[in-house]
Description:
The chain is an alpha/beta fold. About 40% of the residues lie in helices and about 20% in strands. The protein has helices at about 40-45, 45-50, 50-55, 80-105, 120-130, 155-160, 165-170, 175-180, 195-215, 230-245, and strands spanning about 5-10, 15-20, 25-30, 60-65, 115, 135-140, 185-190, 220.
Amino acid sequence: MEKKYICWFSPNLQKDMNIKVYGNSGLPLLIFPTQDAMSDNFENFGMTEVLSNDINGGRIQLFCVDSVDGETWSNIWGDKDWRAARQEKYFNYIVEEVMPFIKNSNTTEKFPIAVGCSLGGLQASILFFRKPEFFGGMLSMSGTYDAKFFFEGWLNQTLYENSPTDFLTNMWEGHPNIQLYNQKKIILCVGQGRWEDEERRTTAIMRDIFNAKKINAWVDFWGYDVDHDWYWWKKQILYFLPHLLS
């Protein structure tokens, strides 16, 4: 499997940020790591090995980014305004720095798919639903979509922009983004087993928002034996990948 390691100093975040690229062609997947993890997250937990046939066959190319979760979502003792502002800078880093890098690096001219498990699923949903014009779709597995969950119920305008259950609820009928959403492939999946309580709750909220706003999305609740765990995320990504590639 061809792998590349890229690092640059981010003007948005004022720190070095890493990207690991797997494969040399195919549908680009922008991979967000699980909570507090970095660009090697998918490789460390065997997800790149699970996807190796599609990577080596030139069907997909993975662009795995670092997180700054230790400064934002996980920074429970930090100032909430600062944490929300830092998340917004991370959003800008992805939009202004990572997305052009993917466009220049990938040979297919296809729009990337935003992908993430757990907190990575929240990041994928934030990026996709705020900037659908940049993406071909999204796949979120076991995401929590209410940012207030990580901020003890607190919300300001900046965090609102990073909380899909909030900004999508208030999206007016006829908003141009809804038309864009319906041209893309949207998949939210969650298990109903251990450690999936908040993920199941907020996925149900997202399902209800989609129905109310007439947003076409595949919202899939797996069984009560399906836990918040890499074992199941590996099965889920293989299950949904043919739909993303079709």
